[in-house]
Amino acid sequence: MSGPRVTHMTSGAYAPPAPARELTVPSTDDARLYVEVHGPQDAPAVVLSHGWTCSTAFWAAQIRELAGDHRVIVYDQRGHGRSPASPVCTTRALADDLEAVLAATLTDGEQALIAGHSMGGMTIMAAAERPRFRAHAAAVLLASTGSSRLVAEARVLPLREGPLRTRLSAGVLGSRAPLGPVTPLAKRILKYGTMGARSTPEMVEACARIVHGCPTGARHAWSQVLASLDLDHGVRRLDMPTAVLHGTADRLVPPVHAHALVAELPRCAGLTELPGAGHMTPVEEPERVTGRIRDLVSTYVTGAGEPAPQPIKEGA
């Protein structure tokens, strides 16, 4: 029986660095999660949660730049990367898994910056009321994510907003068809749907290898969860400093979601808009995303914790 496919770049900025430590963390419903820890054990902690169809490799650029002076914790969501598939795919399971990772990698009372991209951000919203999450989250970064109406707002199809676009988008995003090999055509389609026009061939290649490496069953199962997502209540429970980051050209989770988050967050620590970037912001704008993580760590994890003005809107 073959294990889950794991694909990623093997050289360059998007090749995943070797971890200092690897763990298998048990979670609910017999799920087992693959976890990596990078950097010095006594450094300030950053926990990174990836999105739908991705893996720990998605954070390669951030890990490479942060691990010199941060302890960077990354994990594969259940059914993704090296975490085996689970029959239970729910937002409750996402929250369970994040809490399991925090319990296994952080000491009692230790606080961290917890950042999530896309479904990783939704994981954080799902965990917003969990005691362990709240005990460990000094601050949060929500990147390229939303709390509800994902299919209705998606613009991956060039159609006017309405029931037809919603129905067709649901069919495309929830398809059971295998993605197949990474071909030039597949990369063009992926770039159009999920990345900005300025994305380099290396960026597109890195994302294509990761996304095409996601098992078809997991991709479909989690697409059904995202299609009916409603975590608006979780946003309102994120009462720790929470920053929002979004690409202005995101078709998959358009900027309307970022503005909705900013309006509902109790302690918004700023909105960073990345002009021309699509959905894959940690890959498309690695320096900006890494810089925002560093700023949040220095302010809320190792610094005085003074709240930033609400909201900060950053451009190019």
UniProtKB/TrEMBL annotation:
Residues 44-286 form the AB hydrolase-1 domain. Residues 1-22 are annotated as: Disordered. It comes from the Bacteria. InterPro entries: AB_hydrolase (IPR050471), AB_hydrolase_1 (IPR000073), AB_hydrolase_fold (IPR029058). One of its GO terms (molecular function) is hydrolase activity. The keyword Calcium does not apply. Keywords: Hydrolase. PANTHER family: BLL5160 PROTEIN, HYDROLASE, ALPHA/BETA FOLD FAMILY PROTEIN. This is Alpha/beta hydrolase. It comes from Streptomyces griseofuscus.
